[in-house]
Design a protein that fits this description.
The complex is a heterotrimer of chains A (about 300), B (about 375) and C (about 270). With about 375 residues, chain B is α+β, with helices and mostly antiparallel strands. Chain B contains nine helices and 20 strands. In chain B, the strands form four sheets. In chain B, strands 6-7-8-3-9-10 form a six-stranded mixed sheet, sandwiched between helices. The longest helix of chain B has 18 residues. The chains are: A mainly alpha (about 300), B alpha+beta (about 375), C mainly alpha (about 270). At the A-C interface, helix 1, helix 2, helix 3, helix 4 and helix 5 of A face helix 2, helix 4, helix 5, helix 6 and helix 7 of C.
């Protein structure tokens, strides 16, 4: 089973993980030869594009006459002032999905780690296996689940849940599809495994005897969870929320398939600007802002949560 | 000089190791291990013993000096070209290969085609014939240890290097494996170089022991030699326990030196003194706890003439079955240790009793007083 | 109140099971609707049972072609990313060199970057270079984002490896090449396999980066995306179901093999 969890657990987000200093070997240039092809690949196809994108964002011109760098920083201001609602929406949706993922994912990760017994392997398979069906097909299935005359909407309606969500502005009328609720629901669904697996990894490492020790020292189950289990699972919580929030903030698939024009996220805007309107400077500026915003938020988050070496 | 076969000699000349970070693990060192001997490198962790072993194996490049095996210089040969094999600490058995393939590894790498017979014989020798198709993690610690020995020995190395080979075993198993290793060494007759921090292990197994401290060999000799006549405070304290008493040189009398300690006089054979002895100079007088006899102060008159004697008071006594260990405070030195065999116990020897400690001058040894008196003790190791 | 107590004790189990249901519900729908016979162009509402789609899985124009393109790209991306990533991982674990920190950041950043940003910036590069978008640009992009995942998986495995094993091999007459082939590689294999498997899954299922850099080439996820606009054929549910079943079977099989190994151990 270890091979399975290793294979599927999202890799650790650990740029600063403490490492043992490896010994110096005889071949002085060997490491550079080993690094060369892969690092070159990343420089040319990851780092260099970022620079091209930064340069494109300060260019002016048109498709027909070509673009020139004019240091036209006003593009940033124009792009932001026009699309700030989409930015804000992306952050809200992604944050909502992340919180939902944590609330839904934690019990399941806990269940697998401590309560599943001989079912553990089977449940792991069931968490991972959906990965292998194209996520687009699975996202489309939500169109059926949340269909206007389907059972889910019917039940929510008769329980007057929709009245509440309508009042909150999460849904509109008798529909769930094409509303923010549907988009957040889709985002949550798509990134839930990215929350569960790191949570599971860090929960599984907790020595079961710690629970007994806490119980022995007069902690009730809930106190044990708050004072022992949850703090020890912090690395998993941090890397799980990052692995959920980052892709969710840049996503445009869920909004496109399950939402409407009123749920457009920043990913949708970038995609349309790039692939349909072909306004490259604006698209590049938007993409650059998104990148900067996410890097800034992630850095602050990692600093504040105090776990620089994430699992 | 006509030595019939010296191909198993290990000769280290001026060998030293300084790491990139400036730490010197081994100070320039000369050492010769004769063919066919069981040689132990003994010392606390970080003393340079493992680094020395790894330089013989070729796993570490010496900063200066040369390594010879017999007449062949191997200093610049990579490990896979040296006729030397190692039993690693925690064994380093290949986890993806079964026992048979682990043992056959060296033979196969040297291009041998039919290894079956040899491997099976070797597994029989270490009593693991049944386990050939198991993976290392399915064996117990002691069995893994035997596989590690078999995997090295099957190559008929000129020298077998053992890096703390028994460190991971529990006490009882360790004793058993010590005898086993000694038996194998006698049987195959090749040179064994054994690295250990366990002085008892070194003394029971080795013909010659080199005690290392801070990258240097403190003293080299047979176990009895090292124990009976240590040359430094480190050796005196690291091998067993020693009572070290500060004394002043008084007069020289033939083969003996007479020393002043407190009010009394102590006699030390000149041959057993490793310190310069100018009149009025300081010397540390050493005596092992089991060499001392205890007599109650009331019977002091019964002590024969010619023995070294000190007076003191019993501070503590612990009965441990085969002997009783006393701690005695004396005017010349606090906390002297005395071990007395439980043959005829004197009921008066209880804490608080005044006693006379006496021993034969022949058991006394002398050390240079300029050294740290606590070097090599457990207190020092903990500090 | 026995019921409340029971509920309290099993709260985690109930909540966890509900989450599992949430995760699996779409797969159930996909499977059920692969037997549907929809009225219009879209397969969102249940009409009647039919085996038509299962009988003709390639009955839709271009779908199986896109599937084969996706498979080809996934295989080559896996091969490329696994080789390059393994090399980097070994360099990082086994050697000390300058610029270690920058290399680590360069590995980490692609994993912390929203896909749409990487997709858009890569497109600006290709446009600026005047590259022909298609199979090769997709492959380049996929190798790029799979690389980091391989490095992380292999690195973890190689770091946990006892360096004495390689010393033991060298001590037992194995030269550098033999040591690598006979000891290092077999022991690192599970990490490399994990990285490769992850690469395959990521590449095969990638949509966002592919969508930006595909030109007129259509991969399977892009076909599904297009069909969401034009009309969803039942066959995509057939493919989705088949993929799910194959994945479950493979994992169950590998579990059985692992279990029997564990039993040998005991």
């Amino acid at each position: 089973m270890t091979t399975l969890t290793e294979a599927e657990a999202p890799p650790p987000l650990a740029p600063t993980a403490p490492e043992q200093k490896p010994p110096r070997k005889r071949g002085r240039f060997t490491p550079y030869w080993l690094l060369l092809p892969g690092i070159l690949w990343l420089i040319v196809f990851f780092a260099l594009p970022m620079i091209y994108q930064a340069s494109t964002s300060v260019q002016q011109g048109s498709l027909e006459q070509g673009y020139k760098v004019t240091w036209h920083f006003a593009t940033y201001w124009d792009a932001f002032s026009e699309y700030w609602p989409q930015f804000l929406r992306s952050v809200f949706y992604a944050a909502g999905a992340t919180v939902l993922c944590l609330l839904l994912g934690y019990p399941l990760a806990y269940l697998i780690a401590f309560r599943a017994g001989r079912w553990r392997n089977l449940i792991m398979v069931l968490v991972i296996a959906p990965f292998f069906t194209s996520f687009l097909i699975r996202t489309l299935a939500w169109k059926t689940i949340l269909a206007d005359n389907g059972p889910v909407v019917h039940v929510l309606n008769s329980l007057h849940v929709l009245d509440v969500t309508n009042w909150l502005g999460w849904t509109a009328g008798d529909r769930v599809l094409a509303t923010p609720l549907a988009v957040v629901c889709g985002l949550t669904y798509n990134f839930l495994p990215f929350m569960i697996l790191p949570l599971y990894t860090s929960l599984e490492r907790i020595d079961g005897r710690l629970h007994e020790a806490a119980g022995d020292l007069y902690a009730r189950p809930w106190t044990t969870f708050r004072k022992v289990t949850f703090p020890l699972s912090m690395p998993g919580v941090v890397s799980g929320t990052l692995l959920t929030f980052i892709p969710a903030a840049g996503d445009y698939v869920n909004s496109e398939l399950l939402g409407s024009t009123d749920t457009r996220m920043i990913g949708n805007v970038i995609q349309t600007q790039f692939l349909r309107i072909l306004d490259y400077p604006t698209a590049a500026a938007l993409s650059f802002i998104l990148m900067a915003a996410i890097l800034a938020m992630v850095t602050i988050y990692i600093r504040r949560s105090g776990t620089e070496d994430l699992v | 000089m006509t030595t019939p076969d010296n191909s198993g000699d290990v000769r280290l000349s001026g060998i030293s190791k300084t790491y990139d970070n400036g730490f010197t693990a081994v100070q320039p060192l000369d050492l010769t291990v004769p063919q066919g001997s069981f040689f132990a490198l003994l010392g606390a962790s970080g003393c340079g013993k493992t680094t020395t072993l790894r330089m013989i194996a070729g796993l570490e490049e010496p900063t200066t000096g040369t390594v010879h095996l017999g007449d062949q210089e191997v200093t610049n040969l990579p490990p896979y070209k040296r006729p030397v094999n190692t039993v690693f600490q925690s064994y380093a058995l290949f986890p993806h290969l079964d026992i048979f393939e682990n043992v056959a590894f060296g033979l196969r790498r040297r291009g041998m085609k039919s290894v079956k017979k040899q491997v099976e014989e070797m597994l029989e020798l270490v009593q693991l014939g049944e386990q050939a198709r198991k993976k290392p993690h399915q064996l117990s610690g002691g069995q893994q240890q035997r596989v590690a020995v078999a995997r090295a020995l099957i190559n008929h190395p000129k020298v077998l290097l053992l890096d703390e080979p028994l460190g991971a075993l529990d006490l009882k198993l360790r004793r058993q494996m010590q005898l086993e290793l000694k038996r194998i060494q006698t049987e195959v007759g090749i040179t064994f170089v054994h690295v250990t921090h366990d002085q008892e292990e070194a003394m029971t197994m080795a013909d010659t022991v080199a005690v290392m401290n801070a990258g240097r060999v403190e003293q080299l000799g047979s176990p009895t030699d090292l124990y009976e006549n240590p040359n430094t405070t480190f050796v005196a304290n690291f091998l067993g326990t020693s009572n070290l008493i500060e004394a002043e040189v008084d007069t020289k009398n033939g083969d003996d030196i007479v020393l002043k300690a407190g009010g009394g006089k102590l006699v030390l054979p000149k041959a057993r003194c490793a310190a310069p002895t100018t009149a009025g100079g300081k010397v540390l007088v050493g005596i092992r706890p089991e060499k001392i006899s205890l007599t109650h102060a009331d019977d002091a008159g019964d002590i024969p003439e010619g023995r070294n004697r000190l007076t003191g008071r019993i501070a503590d006594a612990s009965f441990i079955g085969v002997s009783t260990q006393y701690v005695i405070d004396s005017p010349v030195c606090d906390e002297l240790a005395v071990y007395v065999q439980n043959v005829e116990r004197d009921g008066r020897l209880v804490p608080g009793a005044d006693v006379v400690l006496h021993w034969s001058p022949a058991h006394t040894f002398g050390l240079d007083a300029a050294q740290d008196i606590d070097a090599g003790t457990e207190e020092e190791a903990a500090a | 109140m026995p019921f409340v107590n029971w509920l309290k004790r099993h709260l985690v189990v109930i909540a966890g099971t509900l989450t599992l249901a949430y995760l699996l519900l779409p797969n159930v729908i996909v499977t059920v609707f692969s037997f549907n016979k929809p009225k219009g162009r879209f397969n969102y509402e249940w009409q009647q049972f039919s085996l038509d789609a299962w009988k003709q899985p390639c009955g839709v124009a271009d779908m199986c072609g896109s599937l084969s393109i996706s498979l080809q790209i996934a295989v080559w991306a896996t091969v490329g990313a696994t080789i390059l990533g393994t090399m980097i991982a070994f360099a990082l674990v086994r050697y000390r060199f300058r610029a270690r920190g920058s290399v680590n950041s360069l590995i980490f950043l692609p994993m912390a970057m929203p896909e749409v940003v990487m997709a858009a910036s890569l497109l600006t590069l290709f446009l600026n270079m005047g590259a022909q978008l298609g199979f090769w640009t997709i492959l380049i992009a996929h190798i790029m984002f799979c690389l980091s995942f391989v490095v992380t998986a292999v690195k973890a495995r190689v770091m946990s490896m006892d360096p004495r094993l390689e010393e033991a091999a060298r001590d037992l007459y194995a030269g550098p090449v033999q040591t690598f082939l006979r000891v290092t590689l077999p022991i690192a294999a599970p990490g490399i396999a994990a990285g490769a498997l992850l690469s395959f899954a990521l590449s095969f299922d990638d949509f966002i980066i592919t969508n930006f850099n595909a030109g007129s080439t259509v991969t399977f996820p892009m076909f599904v995306w297009g069909s969401a606009q034009r009309g969803t054929p039942v066959q995509i549910n057939v493919i989705g179901t088949a993929m799910f079943l194959v994945a479950v079977l493979i994992t169950l099989f590998s579990m059985l093999v692992g279990n029997s190994r564990n039993k040998q151990r005991a």
